[in-house]
Automatic annotation (TrEMBL):
One Pfam family recorded for the sequence: OMP_b-brl
Keywords of this entry: Signal
Protein name: Porin family protein
Domain Outer membrane protein beta-barrel stretches: 2-158
UniProt superkingdom: Bacteria
Record bears the keyword Signal: yes
SUPFAM superfamilies: OMPA-like (SSF56925)
Length: 158
């Protein structure tokens, strides 16, 4: 669970506008810990927000699927810092609230993340992560330039 901010640019016949969509993001992830310094993860995230702009009031809905690698750096017996890379796909849908017209596209996303992990016990840990992703969505005057996320998660290791 966390916060997401999408930078959205609009360009309609030379009229340009920039808007930010921001709201809660909900995430589900699973992965494998290769060893104490390396982990791989798959993440699904959901995000939705209302945007006003040149194209009228629209609802943005985003489903994102990411594969991530993190390198963990131990700084204390119970604390690791980490940095990593992510890549995947985002399905962005923009629906005009008045006309009902929907523009939908699935596009490549990539970026990186940094954060801190606190080990609660041998099986439980919690992460605080900042992630920045570049998006390739550019359809009918709308461009999703990038996504920023701040996410807090609780993990169970089998």
């Amino acid at each position: 669970m966390g916060y997401q901010n999408d930078a959205i640019k609009q360009d309609i016949v030379g009229n340009k506008s920039s808007k930010n969509a921001e709201d809660m993001t909900y995430q589900l992830r699973g992965g494998v810990v290769i060893n104490e310094q390396h982990r791989l993860m798959g993440t699904y995230s959901y995000f939705s927000d209302d945007i006003n702009g040149l194209l009228g009031e629209r609802k943005q809905t985003q489903n994102m699927f990411l594969a991530s690698y993190d390198y963990l750096i131990p700084v204390h017996q119970k604390i690791n810092l980490f940095a990593g890379v992510s890549a995947g796909f985002a399905d962005n849908e923009f629906k005009n609230k008045i006309s009902g017209i929907t523009v939908d596209s699935t596009d490549f996303v990539w970026g990186g993340q940094v954060g801190a992990q606190f080990k609660i016990s041998n099986n439980w840990s919690t992460d605080l992560t900042y992630r920045l992703l570049d998006q390739d969505y550019d359809k009918i005057g709308n461009e999703v330039d990038y996504t920023q996320q701040v996410v807090w998660s609780v993990d169970y290791k089998f």
